[in-house]
Amino acid sequence: MLKYQQIAAEIEQYINDQDLKQGEKLPVLEQLMSQYGVSKSTVTKALELLERRGVIFQLRGSGIFVRRHNRPGYMSLFSTQGFKSNLGDRVLTSDVLDVSITKPSEDVANNLGIDVSDDVYRVERVRYVDGEVFCYEESYYVKAIVPYLNREIVADSIFDYVQSALGVTIGFSDMYMQVGRLNETEAGYLGLKMDDPTLRIETIFHLTNGKPFDYSRITYHYGHSQFVVQANGPYM
């Protein structure tokens, strides 16, 4: 995790710890520099990150204000940090179905920008929020970038692990969404019926240098998944 990302996380934690509400003012830039012992450019980049994520908004000449006003139970849809980072007090658990080294299909290889002869980690799990089935996930990690995974790591937060233990910095993601109906396998994992409605999201996660390292396909339980999208400006 880069320094500005760490500072952004600490500022967001401060907002949560102080239970600051929409429109409440944060310390000015100079105070934040002193409080966290970092440069102006680091704080500025941290604030820009928080603004893009919909946590704060800045008014020139007036200050920095809290923006986030999430409804209970809603998760940020556009996040590159994984589910755990925006769940708040909710409890995320996983039933790990598979962690294995394999060769990618042509489709997976194309999405990851690798060859079908390269090794990937295949991860399959069902995820629960507060004990309720949330989604079924199938993910592929480039082994050259993520050299080791096991069931213990996968049962928790893979993104926390790759960032803290491996020093991998996540840059951006591309998401492809489709509303459809469950097949028999998906329905079984989600505890629903075949042909029940679902939202499927395919995501390609990239490093800061643009190289893909994770391709995931997530199928959501239509009754237990709610999302929020926060946009800057009048258009998304």
TrEMBL record:
InterPro entries: Bact_HTH_transcr_reg, Chorismate_lyase_/UTRA_dom_sf, Tscrpt_reg_HTH_GntR, UTRA, WH-like_DNA-bd_sf, WH_DNA-bd_sf. The keyword Transmembrane does not apply. GO terms for molecular function: DNA binding; DNA-binding transcription factor activity. CDD domains: WHTH_GntR (cd07377). SMART domains: HTH_GNTR, UTRA. Residues 1-69 form the HTH gntR-type domain. GO terms for biological process: negative regulation of DNA-templated transcription. Pfam families: GntR, UTRA. Keywords: DNA-binding, Transcription, Transcription regulation. This is Uncharacterized HTH-type transcriptional regulator yydK. It comes from Exiguobacterium aurantiacum.
